[in-house]
Amino acid sequence: KIVLFSLELIELSGQLCALLIANDITERKRLENEFISLVSHELRTPLTSLMGSLDLLESGQLGQLSNSGIKVLNIAINNTERLIRLINNILDLERMKSGKITIDKHYCNSADLMQQATETLQVMADQSQIQIITQPVDIEIVADSDRLLQTFTNLLNNAIKFSEPMTQILFSTEIINKQILFVIKDQGRGIPADKTEIIFERFQQVDASDSRTKGGTGLGLAICRQIIEQHNGKIWVESTLGKGSSFFILLPL
Ligand code: ADP
Q: Which residues does the UniProt record annotate as the domain Histidine kinase (predicted)?
């Protein structure tokens, strides 16, 4: 059951009373999820076809475009790709939550995974003049390497997005009591204390303008949490506003 609690102060015959309201929103959430996944499924086919047409235009097989035509086409391609990514993320999350995608665990090397994630984000970090420092522990872990890589790249991507140039990101590992702890620590803008839990929910962002200014959709952390929980692990963030954030991933060894 999903229950929403709220507290209200009311005045009853001259006395101030606290009213605790418990609202069962299980059915509302179920319908909301069903609606979002239905719409996403329906949007995927026309979007894929739209992308095919744009690719054809770009290839020049239908004739050459003017310079301004190419500019408009590139904007259309970028936005279509963004929509396809969004739809795929929604469907991915829904399939993971409903157990339609299972985690494929195998032996993989933690240092290799950290290295691969860092390499994937290196160009973006260089463009933002941000240095990523890795401090790996070379150990074999049992995990779904693709999904763990997806989690690391998501967190590194955010760390870069929400940091200023000339800052550093520290990506480190520690072994604690038969568990491995990965930490991605940035020196970015930080997250307010009342948002550190809610940002792991679907479509939640610290600032409503984040999706416009930073290009995100608020799905990345929800996907990360789903992946880590399917590994029987934990993911959380500790942050100081204006100083930076540390994202922690704890996995059983
Ligand atoms: P997206 O980045 O696509 O918006 P996420 O689920 O990955 O979605 O992140 C949700 C929100 O959490 C972001 O929009 C941002 O407001 C906040 N956030 C995530 N990582 C950081 C970070 N390293 N520093 C500051 N804010 C962050």
A: 38-253
Q: For residue 154, how far is its CA from the centre of ligand 1 (angstroms)? A: 9
pTM: 0.83
Note the pLDDT of residue 26. 87
Whole-complex ipTM? 0.98
pLDDT in tens, 175-230: 998 999 999 999 999 999 999 999 999 888 888 776 667 777 888 999 999 999 99
Q: Taking a C-beta distance cutoff of 8 angstroms, is the pair 184, 197 a contact? A: no
Q: Which CA distances in Å does 151 have to 17, 174, 231?
A: 46, 17, 12
Q: Which long-range contacts (CB under 8 A, 24 or more apart) does 162-166 make?
A: 162/186, 162/188, 162/189, 162/214, 162/245, 163/128, 163/130, 163/187, 163/188, 163/189, 163/244, 164/188, 164/189, 165/128, 165/129, 165/130, 166/129, 166/130
Burial category of 88 from C-beta neighbours within 10 Å (exposed 0-12, middle 13-18, buried 19 and up): middle
Q: What is the DSSP string of 145-176?
A: HHHHHHHHHHHHHHHHHTS-TT-EEEEEEEEE
d(CA 200, CA 157): 15
Ligand 1 pocket, residue 180 CB under 6 Å: no
